[in-house]
Amino acid sequence: MEQVNQGVRENVYPQAAQALYRTLSQAAISAVTPIAAVLVALAFGATLLWLNGFDGTDVVTVMIFGSFQDTRSVAEILLKATPLILIGAGLCVAFRCSIWNIGAEGQLYVGAIAATFVGTSIDGLSVWVHAPLVMLAGALAGAAWAGIAGYLKVRFQASEIVTTIMLNYIAIILTSYLVTGPMKDASAAYPQSARLVREAWTPRIVSDMRLHIGILVAVVLAVALYIFLQRSSRGFALRVVGLNPHAARYAGMDVRRNVMIAICISGALAGLAGAFEVAGVTHRLYQNISPGYGFEGIAVALLANNNPLAAIISGGLFATLRSGSEVLQITSQVPQVLVLVIQGMVILSVVAFAKFRDKFRFVA
Amino acid sequence: MSAKPFLRIDNIRKRFGPIVASDGVSLEIEEGEIHALLGENGAGKSVLMSMICGMVRPDEGEIIYRGQSVRFNSPREAIRQRIGMVHQHFMLVPNLTVAENYILGQGSALKVINDMDKVDAKIRELSDRYALDVRPDAIIEDLSVGEQQRVEILKVLFHGIDLLILDEPTAVLTPQETDRLLALMGDLVKDGKTVVFISHKLDEVMRVSNRISVMRDGRVVHTVNVGETDARGLARMMVGRDVGMELPRSPSAPGPLVLSVDNLTCRGETGLPAVRGVSLDVRAGEIVGIAGVSGNGQTELSLALSGLLPVDTGRVVLNGKDITGLGPARINASGFSHIPEDRHKHGIVMSLSLGENTILQRYDQPPFAARGMLNRRAIGEHTRDLIKRFRIKSRDENQRIGDLSGGNQQKLVVARELARNPDFILVNQLARGIDIGAMEFVMEEMLKQRDSGKAILLISTELEELFAICDRILVMCHGEILGELPPERTRLDELGLLMAGKRADVVQPPLAS
């Protein structure tokens, strides 16, 4: 069938137009499926809400557009999008290398711990030095935390799915211990760390809004990771290892090394997200520093089809849904669990549509 | 042949997606015989047997057992009709005892537990009768592979069978265990049972069976009584393909020594020795062939040479440099090219483009990479050049290689490996699964490489491939090089004998009469 189609095209279009047509149609297929997946999920969600006695379409509309009221609320969405884009883009790299890092949540927590440590224990540095130092500490801690799982995988063939999940618990409980014990702010009643010194704070974009430059860093890094994966030699090796480790070995690639690099990159971005939460948003370390960004980041990467560039958009979408659900809680009686159900549906339909796309690719 | 055979398979077909596993197979098994099923890997032996024992259901055709058409939906239904199979991969629960494994899925738990003493007694009785040495309370994971196999055989005997099917039973056994198993097959037949066993080892087939059926490409191509043929005849039936291929070529002019392998030993996946003391030399400007029935250590030999399998003992020297155990990256960089046996596993990445597959080894070297970034222009130019030179049918260098035909995929692998300008080329199965046109093309290309002074080692199970381009042929059997022959069709008989593991002076007596 393909042969026939090509034959027809060859006669009608010149070579360059053909190539452009293919690229565009492939891009269209790639873009259409996640959008369709989201729409289907929202339709299901609306039906579910309607069955529960709510005005389904109205609620869904609020969920998506309700949070776009003014600049301030858009800034809040972008604030939530920052960790989601960072974690999602990082996980794209790991997933492309067939490393199933489920531990971004834990990597975020250790990133936050490291950032807090650097942000509270040093004083007298300029903001130009201290703020980047905090980010670097978070990224390195996240990479190291992910590196533990990576090492266990390459050395002992321990499943990274299991080890990263277990490391999540350790990181979260370690945070609780630190903010109730060694790092606790002595003057506070609640479990929290001391406040980071001013110079360690992530600079804000506009002084009276919480949005900080982390969103810019996230977008730049997502673009950089896209270029890394698609255009660099190392990124190529990571992809080959992920697609066919036997061929990678045959070609002389060091499979273990590439696995370590991929998991550490994803850990670094999750750690950086943790650093931004502390240095950019709360300025202190708390027990529940993340409302599950590390897990939602998996969905972000999934919706983006493991493309870091697309993770910018899918991270933005999940942040919008998250903000929308907060608006809903304030303005209507819709329980938050229903909002979570809708988010779950988005993920499920993305998976279903991904299967559909794979089938479609053979026909196209 | 008797009017009413014990088991008759009539024109069975089975497809798995695009792959035809059984292409109208017919076969008759007589009561009380040992019937061997012989054939290359992928000839369709295991699938056929799985259909008889209810593991797989045929798409078309009929199985007539004791005069009645039968259709089993599960192995349990087959067992009820007294047909049992021992699979190549054992189906035992490792942390249970022998007795516990036997009663799995047999009726209600309460009843079974009450009967446990009876189960133990029955196992002991069967074990004694056939000298199987199986204890009912032994835990599976403590047993050796050979013991586990006896547990499996006893399991089907325990359930009561008349027809026993064994799928490559000797593949995992030591020679001593093999002898024991072959003797057991004789005992079972004396007790009135019928045995069908799958193998691709000619010598053991000759020793025990009454009749032999040879399968090729999903069909039974010959059924012979054991007295009617010999190992060389069987070898020829197995590899088949009597089409002669004549490629014009000049006599070889071997130059200096390029690759020298000295007493190489390595183990296969099962941990058993697969390559046992192989020594060989390949000179510049010659093609050395390695013939042999598949599964005799050729796969492991090529993986060990290219650094993908650890070498136990011995040395591999390329251009005077010891490359033993250096790992694929450094071996690749030493002027070593490898056209692998399993194209989809090692040779290509199916979902990447032709261009990306072309730079699999050189993705971080100039001109394909500069300062850590891929040079897409250079990759594109290089790939387009190869597509043109090797006449690879494709849209352009950005097409997914998985969308190409097998022949065109292989051409790209050959093109890539030759483009790396190696001194030595290791080829395992040059023309597997590709059409005749592509086959001739890659063979001619190999001859050109030879004439330009490359050293080539061609491992193949296709004799025609070897005859067509090799300058001399080594024969491999049971992990050893048994002899060397010139590539002359008149020496085919000798070649067949060597492939069967028989040096001309050693003839083993058959066990079954």
Automatic annotation (TrEMBL), chain A:
This is ABC transporter permease. Keywords: Cell membrane, Membrane, Transmembrane, Transmembrane helix. It comes from the Bacteria. It is found in: Cell membrane. The keyword Cell membrane applies. The chain crosses the membrane at residues 27-51, 77-96, 108-128, 134-154, 161-179, 211-229, 259-276, 337-356. One of its GO terms (molecular function) is transmembrane transporter activity. One of its GO terms (cellular component) is plasma membrane. It comes from Aminobacter anthyllidis. It is a multi-pass membrane protein.
From TrEMBL, chain B:
Pfam families: ABC_tran. PROSITE patterns: ABC_TRANSPORTER_1, ABC_TRANSPORTER_2. It is found in: Cell membrane. Gene3D superfamilies: P-loop containing nucleotide triphosphate hydrolases. Keywords: ATP-binding, Cell membrane, Membrane, Nucleotide-binding, Repeat, Sugar transport, Translocase, Transport. GO terms for molecular function: ATP binding; ATP hydrolysis activity. InterPro entries: AAA+_ATPase, ABC_carbohydrate_import_ATPase, ABC_transporter-like_ATP-bd, ABC_transporter-like_CS, P-loop_NTPase. Belongs to the ABC transporter superfamily. PANTHER family: CARBOHYDRATE TRANSPORT ATP-BINDING PROTEIN MG119-RELATED, GUANOSINE IMPORT ATP-BINDING PROTEIN NUPO. This is ABC transporter ATP-binding protein.
